[in-house]
Design a protein that fits this description.
The complex is a heterodimer of chains A (about 240) and B (about 240).
Chain A lengths: L2 E12 L2 E12 L3 E5 L6 H8 L7 E6 L2 E2 L7 H7 E4 L11 H11 L5 H14 L15 H13 L5 E5 L7 H16 L4 E4 L3 H7 L2 E6 L2 E6 L1 H6 L4 H11 L2
Chain B lengths: L4 H10 L1 H34 L8 H23 L2 H16 L3 H26 L3 H9 L4 H16 L1 H14 L11 H12 L2 H31 L11
Helix pairs in contact in B: 1-10, 2-5, 2-8, 2-9, 3-5, 4-5, 5-7, 5-8, 6-7, 8-10, 9-10
The chains are: A alpha/beta (about 240), B mainly alpha (about 240).
GO molecular function, one term (chain B): transmembrane transporter activity
Membrane topology (chain B): Multi-pass membrane protein
GO biological process, one term (chain B): amino acid transport
């Protein structure tokens, strides 16, 4: 399988605090990788480094064979290929639902309005939000916002989508809708890296599970490896906390 | 000495053309000053809002640093000195160089003075916007300029509209200081009429009333716009999730 993204020896510190230490992993095309671990383990920072919202202090991020930290690559065009879905949705408050899905296409991909609109409607339909196209994005519920945010990302035709705890800010009854959309994407072959606390989702959907602890990858493998036969004491402890809930 | 209301009314009707001229100049100064000041404020606010990005090269960092320095200097000087003094100083400083009329000078000075205040208004408007908005725009691949123009400015202007509108009212009143360089605005006209009639109380009372009417109309209009902006003109949505 073609390797889409390789992360090698990645390091990130905030001042004296080392948040990521010697991170190594890769994601193949069409694969779903989930990152699990307790709060503060560095999962979200790792995801943000991949999209260059945080700049790593060391190591390499190789996307389709090119090192995005050193090779002269246009950051904006790289970001356009790597979508991001945020915990707090971050829909543009000054734009309605449809415009949220069109602006990236028009400004970054330089598409015509008609083209952008058609594509936006297609992806809004995919996430079940087509009836809300003209709605004020601030007036939606959390679950609706997140589905629009996913549609907004899909409109850019990304090769990889990063999900940063996409369901953590949602009421429990809305989590299912968002996870269903993500499962559908995974089934359609979208490459995804997902930071999540939804263990059931990680188990069902992932091809690879990465367990992070205190800024390092403590263990990674298939869901069967990690959930059924965890090797590390830390992994066992972490998973037992979820099993007991 | 008491106010002769009959005389005041007579003066008002006979001198109306002069007052009217002054009103037009005052309103022109206030509108131009507020609008150009807003544009200046947006530019300055954007420069001050630029954080030094670790991805920037050395040249860009130096430019950004220089930008911060110049804008801080500008705000410091123009907020820290009276507009009347700025007007007199700049008018006489530049008159031999560019030969400007006092009206042009007045327009320029009220604009750059307002710009210094607008810069602070816009900056706090930008700061009130959640950082997630910028991150989302970046994650789509938008450039800094695109993010500013399409996402941040529209929200910053909307958030700080009450303060921006307040500047218009301030400018209707403060344009009177430009009489110091003989701009024929309302206060300057009033002084001329007072000088020719020798009845100061009545004439300045008229000026007071006119200023009050102008600022009242302006604030009614601004309130209406503000209400319109906060009204939800979108389709109401049932929470069905």
């Amino acid at each position: 399988m073609e390797t889409l993204l390789q992360v090698q020896h990645l390091q990130k510190s905030f001042g004296d605090l080392r948040v990521l230490n010697d991170i190594d992993f890769e994601i193949h095309k069409g694969e779903v990788a989930t990152l699990i671990g307790s709060s503060g383990s560095g999962k979200s920072t790792l995801l943000r480094c991949i999209n260059l919202l945080e700049i790593p202090n060391g190591g390499q991020i190789i996307f389709k064979g090119k090192n995005i930290l050193t090779d002269s690559i246009q950051v904006t065009s790289y970001r356009a290929k790597v979508g991001m879905v945020f915990q707090s949705f971050n829909l543009f408050n000054n734009l309605n639902v449809l415009e949220n899905c069109m602006i990236g296409q028009i400004k970054v991909l330089k598409k015509s309005k008609e083209e952008a609109k058609a594509k936006a409607m297609k992806h809004l339909t995919e996430v079940g939000m087509q009836d809300f196209a003209k709605a004020n994005s601030r007036r939606l519920s959390g679950g609706q916002k997140q589905r629009v945010a996913i549609a907004r990302t899909l409109c850019m035709d990304p090769e990889l989508i990063l999900f940063d705890e996409p369901t953590s800010a949602l009421d429990p009854e809305m989590v299912g809708d968002v996870l269903d959309v993500m499962k559908k994407l995974a089934a359609n072959g979208m490459t995804m890296a997902v930071v999540t606390h939804e263990m059931q989702f990680a188990k069902e959907v992932s091809d690879r599970v990465i367990f992070m602890d205190q800024g390092v990858i403590a263990e990674q493998g298939t869901p069967e490896d990690l959930f059924d036969h965890p090797q590390h004491e830390r992994t066992k402890q972490f998973l037992s906390r979820y099993a007991n809930r | 000495m008491s106010i002769d209301f009959n005389f005041a009314w007579q003066t008002f009707t006979t001198s109306w053309p002069m007052f009217w001229y002054g009103i037009k100049v005052t309103l022109a100064l206030a509108f131009v000053g507020t609008l150009v000041g807003l544009v200046i404020g947006l530019i300055i606010g954007a420069i001050r809002g630029l954080s030094v990005d670790p991805l920037d090269g050395k040249g860009v960092r130096v430019l950004k640093g220089l930008g911060h320095l110049i804008t801080r200097l500008y705000i410091w000087i123009f907020r820290g000195t009276p507009m009347m003094v700025q007007a007199v100083f700049l008018y006489y400083l530049l008159r031999p160089v560019i030969g400007w009329t006092s009206l042009t000078a007045g327009m320029v000075i009220i604009s750059i003075n307002t710009g210094a205040y607008m810069a602070e208004i816009i900056r706090s408007g930008i700061q009130s916007i959640d950082v997630g908005q910028t991150e989302a725009a970046k994650s789509l691949g938008m450039t800094n300029t695109q993010t500013m123009m399409s996402i941040i400015f529209p929200q910053a202007i909307r958030n700080s509209f009450p303060s921006i509108g307040n500047q218009l009212i301030v400018n209707i009143k403060d344009s009177s200081m430009l009489n110091a360089i003989a701009v024929t605005e309302l206060f300057f006209q009033t002084t001329s009429i007072a000088g020719s009639t020798m009845r100061y109380l009545e004439v300045y009372m008229i000026a007071c009333i006119i200023y009050l009417i102008l600022t009242t109309i302006a604030s009614i209009i601004l309130n209406a716009i503000e209400k319109h902006m906060s009204d939800d003109h979108q389709v109401s949505i049932k929470a069905n999730v």
